[in-house]
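[INFO] parsing input record for Cation efflux system protein CusC
[DEBUG] input buffer:
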Amino acid sequence: MNARSGLRDWRWRRCLLCVAWMPLALSGCALIHHNGTPNAEIAPAQIDLANDIHLARDGWPAARWWTRYRDARLDALIDQALADAPTIVIARTRVAQAMSDVELVKTGSSLQVVALGMLDREHVSAHGFLGPFAKDEPALGLTGPWYTEGIVGFGASLNVDLWGKQRAQIAASLGVNNARLAETSAVELEISTDVAQLYYGIQTTYQLINLLNESHEIAVFTVQAHEGRSARGLEARTLVEEARAQQLAIERQIVSAQAQIKQFRESMRALVGAGPDGLPAIEPVALPSLQEALPATLSYELLARRPDLQAMRWYVEASFDRIDAAKAAFYPSFDIKAFFGFNALHLADLFTHASQQINLIPGLYLPIFDGGRLNANLSGAREGSNLLIEQYNQAVLNAVRDVAQTGTRLQALDAETELQKQRIESIAFARDSVEASYQRGLTSRLAALEARQPVIAEQVALLTLNGQMLSQDIALTKALGGGYRADPPVELKPR
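[DEBUG] output buffer:
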């Protein structure tokens, strides 16, 4: 047997030895002791409304739900907010950051190639491993003790994902990215509903000021009439002061309402992210008529309609992938490193054939005595996942509660509004009677004007109810997800 065949036989024996040793290595890996079990997802029966909660018609909000109010100024304000609001910019930046994390994790499972170049001016120790090279004996090829070493070439590395650890980490990063996208939709819904609430808060206050101005005109005439009578000695001064007190109370309400409009505008300006002159003028318009709607059933469709719930579902999915990655860490990892280039102690010899260097380094890493850390990592991943599941379950219950409470409040407001309209009709009958008597000369103008005050007061109460209904209608839209639709839906599959 020649030397070449003997070397070939030794290589085959070494390969067979490695294959035979692999089961022993796998059995010597750290053991999983703290896997745990996933918490249960919320039951479908808990994702629905009580039978006594219903509104005029069934339906989910449209994507641009605010256009149903048919107000071009509101449309423009919401579009401006969705484009420029600081919170939107923050949310989109978080999405970009999550996508960068995905790309970073992906690179860990791909082939890495780098170009190397190094120049090393070194003094060789006479007592070290390279001690003979510290001598200066040119005849022997030793020109020490100073050398200028050069290395030029390419290095490569590849992690072989045998157990899916890298795939699980990539999936977890993608889950976080999807969660951030859903959170961006949730921020958009929050901003659009806040803008609508502020806008109609301003419009309601405009109408309140109109009613207060009407009441103020009557109060001014009342004061003047009582002052005339008091001056002629026909009545006591007390009536003048009572009328003046009523006038001042109305003026105070007007001042308060005007200040409220300014506060609403400043809140909207901060929300939109506009400068001192960046918010367009908001002119008074009539409040829109409402067509409140609730879906016939919520069930799992609510989960796909709420962006905040979808974000939490994606975080839960990502937590399952982190568990898979934590489990895969218990098994051996395998990588391959390689180098091709030139290495020489003298720069003059660097690019010669004899200075070529090739390295091929397969590596196997076994976590044998690392079970404590790995089990703690797995336990932490499992408990973190269970915490997210419970937070998700609670968020679902809160979402159902929001829909139920808002729907119930709208039902009550609708009934209150109808009763208030009937009350105004009754009080208006008395006002009309006094007005008719005044037209016939049977009573004074003061009495006719004062008969209008109770009607105006009840109109203010009706306006308050209408404003509350509009606010609750917007809140219901938000509770139903504002037209958001997850596509495709995310499924919770605990592992």
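[INFO] The first helix runs from residue 3 to 27.
[INFO] shutting down worker
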